[in-house]
Amino acid sequence: MELKIDRVTKQYGSKIAVDRISLTLGRGVHGLLGENGAGKTTFMRMICGILAPTGGSISFDGMEAATEGYRSVLGYLPQDFGYYPDFTGKDFLLYMAALKGLPKRRAGEKAKELIEMTALKEAAGNKIKTYSGGMRQRLGIAQALLNDPDILVLDEPTAGLDPKERVRFREVIQEYGKKHIVLLSTHIVSDIEHVAGNILMMKRGQLIYRGPWGEEKGDLEQFYLKQFEGGEE
Amino acid sequence: MDYEEQYDRIYRYCYYKLKQREMAEDITQETFLRFFGKKEYQEGEHPMKVMYTIAKNLCTDEFRKKKYMFLEDVKGEEVLQNKGPEDDIVNAGALRLAMEKLDDVSREVLFFRFVNQESFAVIGEMYHLSRYAVYRKYQKALKILRRELEK
Amino acid sequence: MRWKKKQIKQEFIKLYEAPEPPGKQEFLKQFDTCYLSMGQFMWQQLLYIKKWMWLFSAGIFFLGTMLGRNLDRETVWVISALIPFLALTFLTESGRSKIYGMEELEYATRFSLKSLMLARLGVLGLFHGVILLLLFLCIPQGFFPGPKDLMYVLVPYFLTVSIGFSLLRRFRGREVLYISLGVPAFVSLLVAVANQMYPLYSISMVKFWGLAGLFVMIFTVKETILFFRQTEEFVWN
Questions:
Q1: What is the pLDDT at residue C34?
Q2: Chain B contact partners (≥3 CB pairs within 8 A)
Q3: B77-151: which CATH topology?
Q4: ipTM of model
Q5: Among A104, A191, B45, C150, which has the highest number of CB atoms less than 10 A from its own CB?
Q6: What is the CA radius of gyration of chain C?
């Protein structure tokens, strides 16, 4: 199970949003750290196959990104997402399940399972517009897991979650990462320092650090903040 | 028809034949595996007909092996084991007695029609009868039952 | 006691009632088809088209047929002014994902936004095609309907769709809703005003309608291709 990212670049006119990143990601939780504008979201969109790279390639177990087969094994939680106003939480999950190709029965089973896992059982029958930010985020996490994706990509997933929800989220991710590839981006170091086995740091489109982070290397947060001292965002 | 519906129908049929839950389920599952195992089964004839035939043969084999009582052998007195209000027991008993007046095929036709809601076409294929012949048998069976039940 | 067939059936079912098979769910898991087929997906998507779209379209149709009875050559432009509102539902459906910020989620799925759009717009388009044809037959004409008269319904519809698609591609969020509502209103007004200035619907305007039809068709094809191309890839401004 390997996600191969080979010299992937995204350029908009003269601006280079992602600059020749090469990586191989295997099972486990990979934390992507970087300030806003570092290119994290652009990078993640390319991994999800929804943005075409200007250069380089991405593939998973031989399948090119953006192919149907690749998208079938993908779960994605974007940084911002909306919802159709008349949908309840359950409607939303069933709708996404259909798009992910799950047959009706399986969709129902999975939706039920994930509603329980994200503690949304009471609210599942209510319209999403009545949900708090934290609830919406949990619903977003639930939809990302519907098809038991081999590649789970989460862009700023803890935004809007209260401390208790964050802890629960970390547990879920850690468990999921044991058998799948999880790529999670954030600008909050504490979200990933104890959960991610592999740390990736992006600055201005480039990967400035990759690898595990052990205690012997010191405080991750300090190291991370140092990278941006004196530089422009 | 989805798999769950097919499973339920075959299971009910096997239970009708064998009156034993575990054995009925085993044979249902065996029927599924055999049906989906051979590509030839899935093309051509109506799938339910093929599955019923496989199940019927498996039930017959089982019967031969273990000498189960087929429904045809069950007497009217057995109805006393039925739980439920007085009326139910009386009705069930009356129906059982009336059923004894029918031949095996007629009984099965009623089973397929009432319990499994099979079409006359599929039932016809099972017994190598035309749809109309099955329909006539069905109507005749109902007539006999009514006559017996009104006695 | 007279037994009715229903009663016999009920007693029969009770008599042959089988206990629940405990191993069913577990066993059937292995037979679960892993994925929905494209056909099943398309059918499911149809059900997501809001009811009001069908009703609104039908409403336009009925209004059009009623007006058609009372029109003559002088007032036939009214039908042309009505048609853009039919295209309103088409544009609203096209823009739904964008209006509610769902595109990014929909892109990253197996079937993706493109299939979704093709399914829904395909069916809605077909439905509208039938309505347009029937409305065309309602237009008052000479001895038999001619191609120029067909343009009276097709041009406003496709003009609305092509302008709509062109704008939809460039915007996201709430603006898309305004476009879906505004463009039909604009085209309708355009028809009304243009008719005041020139006798567009007179018999002498064959060339105009021919050219208009051609131009609008080409524009529509181009914009449709670009629109669907955008459903394949998320374009972030």
A1: 58
A2: C
A3: Arc Repressor Mutant, subunit A (1.10.10)
A4: 0.90
A5: A191
A6: 25
